Sequence to fold (670 residues):
Amino acid sequence: VILSSSTVLQPATQYDESCSFETCFNMSMCHLRGDGRLSVYVYPNQIFVDEQGKWLLDLPSLEYAEMLAAIRSSRFFQADANQACVFIPSAVDALNMAKLQTQEASAVLRSSFRWAGGANHLLFSMLCKREHFNKLDAGKAMIAGGCFSQRSYRRRFDVAIPLVNPHTSLGQLPNPAKLRHFLLLAVLNDWHYTARSELEPMSGQHRDILILNRCGGGSRETSKTSEKAYYNERKRCSEHVVYDYPNVLLRSEFCLIPYGGPWVGSSILIDALKTGCIPVVVGDDVVLPFDEHVDWSRASIRVHNYHLQDLPNILRSVSSVKRAEMRDQVNFLFKRYFSSIANIALTTLEVIEQRIMQTHHDAYERWNDPPANPDEDHSMDSQGLVPHRQKTLPIFLPHISQAASSFTAVVLSYNRFATLCRVLEKIDSTPSLVKVIVVWNNVKTKPPPLSRFPKLKTKLEILHMNFNRLNNRFIPFSQIETDCILALDDDIEMITTSELEFGFQVWKEFPDRLVGFPGRRHTWNKAEHRYRYSSMWAGDISMVLTGAAFHHKFYSHLYTYTMPKAVRHWVNKHMNCEDIAMNFLIASFTGKPPIKITPRKRFRCERCSLNESLWDGPEYFQERNYCLNNFTRIFGGMPLKKVDYRADPVLYLDPHFGVHEQRFANIGHI
Fold:
């Protein structure tokens, strides 16, 4: 392909640092296959020359060629560009940006017939700096890069990948040693002088800490003229002792991973994962590979730069059991995502696919839980598929449920018996209520006998739990014989039977929604760059609290058996956010907002003591802020949808009809 000099000399457009998936990715270009999978077009191999026939770009590296070959033979590949969603230029190898002729590469990108400013294009770049992208005409292209800091990373648009050194990160290793003699191993290489001055004395102070440098001293930056003779990529030295690298990492429990150096990323991370050495990541501005889905807290330790001197004590405090668990997770992550250039490329595409589809409710488990069978293959196959067990859903969720004639109230209670009795008496006369199940969460105290409960027209059952967990309210108990469940707290005294009956009728029309009374919303804090939970009364909502809400029993099954375990574990540990978790679950499953019914905003018991409540105090709301952001990470995105309407009875507040003429007469106004 011949490019004119005017095309080559055309100045690059400004790299768009504000790109997001919503602003720079064109979903209308996507044609998802019948199986719902991402389609990727790889441009054909071409050689670009100038008007004199001189090559504009070098041939792609072996590593980039391996990436392209893996994609072309995977399930993602689409040979027809008109049916593709993502486009990958084959001629522009940006893996090592230091060697890329950025002006010529920009001209090649602009000449690509699907370029359109870079929208829906993907560039792979491992060894890079932020300023490189200002010289390359990357436009609106996504960057799969190993050089991101928190400031340069366009979250949920770019993809963080590892920096791989082909001399050390690839190839076979000897069998790991049975004993790891060193507590910590650090390869200083290009570390900042201040950090080096803190770390280097440690080997003299602690016999189980090994500090290594390049053999011969100095760094790559100060020895460019004689680099080949100056140091061997596969050797590292401690004073006059020479070690084989990366084999020496097999002898250490923990490996220090520097971030924020000249190239931001560090190939030592992959070397550590490969050798089963638990990474200790240093840096406050770190974006780890595939952090959108991979839970690195299970396989690594984070330390701030100013805690380097405390490292020996921090690492010795980690128990042998915890070390073994983390090492197992390290081995799992390496085999599945990082064991080859091909795996890295296919994992990158899977990240993008999940952004588009947003339908994997078990995303956290699929990305982070090793298979139950230890002999099961952890890695992707040649088609980019990760083996995982399919879960069979227990029931069918209809789009409409007009045939449903009744609902079951599941009331969560602990020790407020008098309040519980008042609530039971209040809801008993609801026409469509067929059964009440009290989930008694007080493990130490048995629930009172049925003789002490009020006499109800509705059937009452008491279930004494073995554990005090908020998740208990969403267990799909066999005693629940209706599709519709009313989740209710034991202090919702102000609710009326008219409101409950109206709520059930609304649910019958929208059985796939969460239909409830107290509304809440999430907001985005630009300054803090995170979501915040808001109970302020505003015009829109994105959640309804499950202290008084109707939902299909189907969602109790999903919550209990298929929702990410990390969410349920967090709720159990903190006794908070089970309602947020259910909102996340239903919104991610349906892509729809909840429905708030009736104008009332307050429902809780006004006579109850504040110290009896789990939801009193600033710590409660701080945890709910954390819930929103933690669940967003686990679910792989923010599924909640905002809506600015509510459902009221047809004749509500109509001055032409009296109370006796209204089916739902007693609707609260506050």
About this structure: The first strand starts at residue 40 and ends at 42.
